[in-house]
Batch of 2 targets.
Target 1
Amino acid sequence: MADPMRIRAQAAGDKVTVRVLMSHEMETGQRKDSAGKVIPAWFIQEVTATHNGKPVLTAEWGPSVAKNPFLQFVIKGGKAGDKVAITWVDNKGDKRTDEATVS
Amino acid sequence: MHTRREMLARSAKVAGLLAAAGFLPMSALAAWPQAAFDAKNMADAVKALGGTSAPAESKDVTITGPDIAENGAVVPVGVATTLPGVKRLLLLVEKNPSVLAAVFDVTDSVEANLNTRVKMGQSSNVFAVAMMNDGKVLYASKEIKVTLGGCGG
């Protein structure tokens, strides 16, 4: 399994700003290795975010999202102590879920 | 500091919760819009995602990013709109091999304001597209100059 995500969720008023840093190669399938062979594409295809178990955001990504992707979004109506969970699935079917508590 | 064991146990728990909520990531993966990511221009990408009207430029959609990106491998960009009733936000880079970079399906619980980082092969226009619930498709564009491409090897 891939390395854990770094999730920071901070409450300000009734809004929660969530910043996620995922650890992933995000190979485009366009690059070639030193032997001239194309490195196969390997990237995160889907990211889902849940707030206290309720899905709030889904993202579909292509290979042009940068390596070790960063995502920032704002949840309305959140407060400190809430749980925010992020799940990603890559094109090899690998997936990872991490959870953070809003501070 | 969490131990790895703790993290794994937690992950399993969250995955279980997701499954219980009828939300299995694998089933959603089949819905990855291949056609949209194969599209060569904005109109095709929007069409592949079920947009019916032609994209129109709008001041209510904003795209943020640097004017000049030193490193094309990591270009921070943000898409946002102030309009209510947004269904999807799209992020496109005009001159990348795959024009569509990211699709965000937003719900009412999330503000239509997202930031991420993309790769850019060369200087190009980037577009933020908002697909509204009423079928309207609005966009904003910004030119970002890249001094070092992000797609070379």
Target 2
Amino acid sequence: MEQEPLQSGKRILRDAAVPRGGRLLLVLLPIVLISGIVSIGWLLFVLPTTSLSTYLVPVIVGALAVESLLVALLVFIVFPGYIKFVTLASGAITQTAGKSERYVHALTGSALGYWEYDVQRGELFLSGSMMSMLGYPDRDKVESIDFWWQNTHSEDVEGLKRTIEYNLDKRAEPYSITYRMRRSNGEYVWIEAKGKAILDQSGSPTMMSGVSQDITNVMRVQEVLESRTLELEEATNKIEQEVQNVRKFQKAVDSSTEAVSITTPDGAIVYVNPAWMTLNGYSEAEVLGRNHRILKSEDTKSDVYVALWEKINSGYPFHTEDIINKRKDASIYQAELSIAPIQEGNQTLFYVSLCQDITLRKEVDRAKTEFVSLASHQLRTPLSAIRWYSEMLLSKYVGELNDKQRQYVKEIYAGNLRMVELVNALLNVSRIDLGTFAVEPEPVSLVEICESVILELTPQIIERKQTVEKIFTGAPATFKADPKLIRIVFQNFLSNSVKYTQPEGHIIAEIRTIEENLYIRVSDNGYGIPKHQQPKIFEKLFRADNVRQKDTEGTGLGMYIVKAIVESSGGKIWFESDENKGTTFHVTLPLVGMSKKSGMRGLN
Amino acid sequence: MTESKQKKVLVLEDERQLAMAVRDALVERNFQPIVVQTITDGLTQLESLGGVDVIWLDHYLLGTGSGLDFVVKVKNNPKWQQIPIFVVSNTASDGNVRAYIQLGVNSYYTKADYNIMQIIDDIEYSLQNEVGEIN
């Protein structure tokens, strides 16, 4: 097909053979005509002057006859052949040109550039469209092959040379290659070139020709597509990873021994794990879409639910051990429940709750606490004996002790007092933990209680040369409180301040009302509580490192008891402390005072 | 000071160690202690002695009944109801302590929290006031 215009032109010319003898006649015709004219001149002007003038007429007639014959031959035999040949040649040329034009149109229409590489001369023919592709004027041009190498992108030039060499060596044909060429403005254009070597009759390559196409846009689209594909792959991988994670979490949650459930913000259950179903006796189908109220029992105190909703509505997680849940079979269990609202921005997406049956644990806890309580009670009898006998030994009724004996008995007596204090504290803690401590409120003077505690501590305060500042001007005359409990609060704050403040330190005790609250503050400029230990200050048996070294006698139970007293009275307790700068404890209690609470025992 | 002027203290305490300490301390402070371990013995002693000056009472005692039962009996007896009673116990619950106070005992002490002499001081003080009132 590519050869079509050439082949058809050649065929036409072959069919229209040049007329025979035509060339000879064409050469002879001017010679004959010129020699005829010269002969006629000679006959007319020279012959009459010669002796042959008598043959003038016959000679002229003869010459004219010969001329006429030659002209006739030319006109009637040679010219028609040539006219026919010319007509056919013209047709062939028109046809060839027409077909070539189609290819030119096709090339330009398809934005293809045509090129030819003369291998032997090292010359490169570049079509106008090829030049235009490279940003040069749209005209055919002949360049050195070096022009091409110089403008090929440095990363592509080696590959291009290699491909052409392969093609010329007939190892690959035809070839097709994509590479980058520098345009006249310095930018690079992506080119897709196709070509093949043209061989001579001996099979050696003489030329190479082909077409090139600007595929920059295609490459750009391809690049964009590749990057999109990459992004898609990454996204797919991420999704796959997320799916794996979700599966992992799903499996973890499914196999968790804690009962896990997920609810929508309006309370509809959307997920329960197998442990949840085992714990509560419901199947998944029975609970999906339903509310957690199905577990609600009459035994849970209503204030637990109030606190629960208050917390989670404010976006905070809630934790309690005071929920009594009811199973499907109506049996109940004590639950440890944690609910966390899962939020996106300000919107709650769902609530995740973890629940555990702690009935047994609570029973064990209770048994342990009861044991501590009982053991502490039992300890009191021998402690009383030690106290009384050592007291009597010290009291000279049974005779004088020598100094060393006296000192030792004093140590026994002091050690015993410490033990009594510890046992009392343990009993208080067990009463708090069992919820059996009683609150017996009556109108009391907080100032008097505080003053009496300070009076008790006066020997130590004097010994340590400390000063106590009392700010009681805003204190209420009376406050409804259990005097024993409020005394424990002051006793712990103030004795801690005295113990844990250096000699000549300063202690402040303040009582006043702030709005609807009673406010108590005990402040000192003492040793302070190390920052990292501050979160543990209200835990049972906690003692800060820095004071444990200075005073070995504390029980570590005082602040736990104080917190329980304050919070059971609807109050709040908090503190600020800096090591070696001091500590300030704050307490607020509702001005209405403490509420009565019946129990086995008050706190000592 | 003669034997007859010594105040009689009926001590109801079932712990041997503590009972001995109380007895010795009371003797040291010139009291005449009579120590028993059960309510029954306590009541018997009250009957046989024709009353005492003071009663030192523990809550949990050997045998049946607690210190509360003993107080009820003493307070219901017109001969004995004026005898001052000092409850000295380690184990009474708040409810029991309230019951003791309501029944009209003079004071309640947790043994481990008080020196024995503090309690005897209070007993003496109470007896002196009583004497003062009589006078």
